[in-house]
């Protein structure tokens, strides 16, 4: 079957369909990871996004039931140069095409993915519609015009959990099947703005008793649990419209230690009086270099975000810039000693990606122990 991608500027890419059939709108972005496609697809931060992989061959390690980062797939579509129908990996159960079909994700292959990525880098991330059931550009263009995009919308409400729960799973060694355990010392309330499971696993393995709460949980309910610390998770879209979470964090500041990742970093910054802005094409991949300004060391990091914190808007507060992106010098981490809060824009829990920044979970433990 044929399939098509139509961008909001009128650019069309035609290729072959694989996975599920249908049509969906979303923001067209690219990811520079070589693998880790299951973790990427099940990361709630990709809600309403059509992902293009820059690596040309995807699917060669197949899929399994373990490498899920949430309860379901959140991406609107997936684009590759070539899909591998003959995976080879000892953990593989199904091919990538079978996985997309089972999870109702539209796949597009056979296009010039390098041309698409160069177009996004030049023009910026933009709205698009992917379809394998209707290939008429005029009809697709009309449907795309009705799609509101991500800016100014709260899409956290579409991915957060509905009820609070206790997370109990630790990080598992896939070879030995053993869990990395640490004695429970600290009670942590984790706000789910679209939390990845490996973040919760890392907190649990670091010695946290993790209680996950919905994104709109008020500060009073957090205080009622008497936590040792509060965690702000990753999540999708524009942080500014998530006003209820920003106000809650503002009330928590200075009362309990806070650690934020990705969207949690942005929400913390907004609660501190800062501002955010949309990046031209975002940072998405498992190989982004970040400099730790406290140690001078370079960390290779996993990233997935389209918005960024404006450091100039935070200069009036006792806030320290701790990490910067070496590709474009954007803000990757902050710390507020006065209020016992810190956050990073990237993903120290990896999945997929390197583990250079896993020390940040220990930093959170030390902050709660003071």
Q: In a few lines, what is going on in this structure?
A:
This protein is of the alpha/beta class and 370 residues long. Helix content is 21%, strand content 33%. Helix 7 crosses helix 8.
What does this molecule look like?
With 370 residues, the protein is of the alpha/beta class. The protein has 2 domains: 2-145, Carbamoyl-phosphate synthase small subunit, N-terminal domain (Glucose Oxidase, domain 1); 156-368, Rossmann fold, CATH 3.40.50. 21% of the residues lie in helices and 33% in strands. The chain has helices at residues 37-41, 96-102, 113-123, 137-145, 197-205, 219-224, 243-252, 263-271, 359-368, and strands at residues 2-7, 12-19, 23-31, 49-53, 57-58, 77-80, 82-83, 106-109, 126-131, 165-167, 171-172, 179-180, 186-192, 208-214, 229-232, 258-261, 275-292, 298-310, 320-325, 331-336, 341-344. A 10-stranded mixed β-sheet has the order 10-14-13-15-16-21-20-19-17-18, sandwiched between helices. Strands 1-2-8-6-4-3-9 form a 7-stranded mixed barrel. The chain has a two-stranded parallel ribbon with strand order 5-7. α7 (243-252) packs across α8 (263-271). The mean pLDDT is 96.
State the CATH architecture of the largest domain: 3-Layer(aba) Sandwich
- The number of E-state strands comes to 21
CATH class of the largest domain: Alpha Beta
Give a short account of the largest sheet.
Answer: 10 strands, mixed
What is the ordering of alpha helices and beta strands?
EEEHEEEEHEHEHEEEEHEHEHEHEEEEEH
Q: How large a portion of the residues is in β-strands, by DSSP E?
A: 25-35%
**From the alpha-carbon coordinates, what is the Rg to the nearest angstrom?**
20 Å
Distance between the termini: 60 Å
The backbone outline, from C-alpha atoms, is globular
- Number of contiguous helices: 9
Oligomer: single chain
As for the number of domains, it is 2
What is the name of the CATH superfamily of the largest domain?
Class I glutamine amidotransferase (GATase) domain
From the helix content, strand content and strand pairing, which structural class follows? alpha/beta
């Amino acid at each position: 079957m044929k399939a098509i991608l139509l961008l909001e500027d009128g650019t069309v890419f035609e290729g072959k369909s694989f996975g599920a059939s249908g049509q969906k709108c979303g923001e067209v972005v690219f990811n520079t990871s070589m693998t880790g496609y299951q973790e990427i697809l099940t990361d709630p931060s990709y809600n309403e996004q059509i992902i293009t992989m820059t690596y040309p061959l995807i699917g060669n390690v197949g899929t399994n039931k373990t490498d899920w980062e949430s309860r379901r797939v959140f991406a609107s579509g997936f684009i590759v140069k070539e899909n591998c129908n003959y995976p080879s990996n000892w953990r593989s159960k199904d091919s990538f095409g079978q996985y997309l079909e089972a999870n109702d994700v539209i796949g597009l292959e056979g296009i010039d993915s390098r041309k698409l990525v160069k177009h996004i880098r030049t023009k910026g991330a933009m709205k698009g519609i992917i379809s394998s059931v209707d290939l008429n550009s005029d009809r697709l263009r009309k449907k795309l015009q009705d799609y509101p995009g991500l800016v100014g919308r709260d899409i956290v409400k579409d991915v957060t959990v509905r009820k609070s729960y206790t997370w109990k799973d630790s990080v598992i060694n896939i070879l030995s099947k053993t869990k990395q355990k640490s004695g429970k010392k600290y009670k942590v309330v984790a706000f789910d703005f679209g939390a990845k499971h490996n973040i919760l696993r890392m907190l649990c393995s670091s010695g946290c008793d993790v209680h996950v709460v919905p994104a709109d949980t008020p500060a009073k309910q957090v205080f009622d649990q008497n936590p040792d610390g509060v965690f702000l998770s990753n999540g999708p879209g524009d942080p500014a419209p998530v006003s209820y979470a920003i106000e809650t964090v503002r009330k928590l500041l200075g009362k309990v230690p806070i650690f934020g990742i990705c969207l949690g970093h942005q929400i913390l910054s907004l609660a501190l009086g800062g501002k955010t802005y949309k990046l031209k094409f975002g940072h998405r991949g498992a190989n982004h270099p970040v400099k730790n300004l406290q140690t001078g060391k370079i960390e290779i990091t996993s990233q997935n975000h389209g918005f960024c914190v404006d450091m100039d808007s935070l200069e009036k507060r006792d806030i320290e810039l701790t990490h910067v992106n070496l590709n474009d010098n954007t803000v990757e981490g902050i710390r507020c000693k006065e209020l016992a809060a810190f956050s990073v824009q990237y993903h120290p829990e990896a999945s997929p990606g390197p583990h250079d920044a896993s020390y940040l979970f220990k930093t959170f433990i030390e902050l709660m122990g003071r």
